[in-house]
Amino acid sequence: MKTTRNVVTTAASLALMMGMLLSSCGANNSIAESSAASAQPSAEATTDAAPQARTYTDSKGHTVEIPAEAERIIYTGSDVGDMLALGVTPIGAALGIIKEQVAFPELLDGIKDIGDLLGDAEKITALDPDLILLDSGGTYYEEGAFDTLSKIAPTVTYDRLETNERLRMLGDIVGKQQEAEEWIASYEAKVKEAVAKLNVQTGESASVFLLLGKEFYVMGDKSFAATLYHTLGYTPAPEIQKNLIDANERFANISNELLPDFAGDWLFVLTDEDDAARSAT
């Protein structure tokens, strides 16, 4: 049986915050630079001087006229931290579980919950947005949602790209290109510092377990786990690679008897800050 050398137990809320700010639920996190021009949809100003609007071709091929400087943005999807990283506070977002479990809930002050990940049309209409960002990278995406939201305000779909590409893309849409580059530079500096402090060795494996009450879940390579594998350089434990990542599963509920099979050299155990959960670890 494999012996796990290191165990790190932390609050799930902290991990969710990291996932919200640093990773996409549906995209790998990489510290490698990538060409923004090759990955981003195209945008061009409709006038030469101080345009009030411009055309933008989004991830689904829609050509949309959007404000040059949107002020009332609705953000659908699960990574509202992308907007916060750009210095943009949406007037509405799909907060869901994030609202209850982020480590710093004050960051969500002033953001109205718009319902599920595709947004509730009635709630969005009431907020009178001038731009809607619609997550098209999830399996729940429906073209009908774009049609509905487009009747409320200019709507742009976006894909779940790698972190740097995604921030550059969103920065382009909302006119925060410089802020995106500044955040990326700061993040990559912190990554290098973290890797040095952790002394991550080549081939060193890791597992992420989520403990909610008495229930154990093992995570694939999304959210916090994506940061470990794709940014910090840990290798997924073989069973995680085979049963979750290769199968495109985000997480799986497992019995205590199977825990050793999914254990890497490092165990990152996320709890819900419940006393029973902490005592179980």
* Global geometry: globular
The radius of gyration over CA amounts to 20 Å
- What is the count of structural domains? 2
CATH evolutionary superfamily of the largest domain: Nitrogenase molybdenum iron protein domain
State the end-to-end CA separation.
19 Å
| Mean pLDDT over the full residue set | 80
| CATH topology (fold) name of the largest domain | Rossmann fold
> What fraction, in percent, of the residue positions are helical?
25-40%
Structure class:
alpha/beta
Which CATH class of the largest domain is shown? Alpha Beta
The appropriate CATH architecture of the largest domain is 3-Layer(aba) Sandwich
Task: Give structural notes.
It is a single chain. The chain has 281 residues and is α/β, with parallel strands linked by helices. The protein has two domains: 6-27 and 200-280, 3-Layer(aba) Sandwich (Rossmann fold); 36-188, 3-Layer(aba) Sandwich (Rossmann fold). The protein is built from eleven helices and 14 strands. The chain has helices at residues 12-22, 36-39, 81-85, 96-101, 121-126, 143-150, 163-174, 177-198, 224-231, 238-245, 275-280; strands at residues 6-11, 43-45, 53-57, 63-67, 73-75, 92-93, 112-113, 131-135, 155-158, 205-212, 215-219, 235-236, 251-254, 266-271. Helix 1 packs across helix 9 (224-231) and helix 7 (163-174) runs antiparallel to helix 8 (177-198). The longest helix is centred in the C-terminal third of the chain and has 22 residues, at 177-198. The chain is globular.
List the helices and strands and how they pair.
Layout: E1 6-11, H1 12-22, H2 36-39, E2 43-45, E3 53-57, E4 63-67, E5 73-75, H3 81-85, E6 92-93, H4 96-101, E7 112-113, H5 121-126, E8 131-135, H6 143-150, E9 155-158, H7 163-174, H8 177-198, E10 205-212, E11 215-219, H9 224-231, E12 235-236, H10 238-245, E13 251-254, E14 266-271, H11 275-280
Parallel strand pairs: 1-14, 5-6, 5-8, 6-7, 8-9, 10-12, 10-14
Antiparallel strand pairs: 2-3, 3-4, 10-11, 11-13
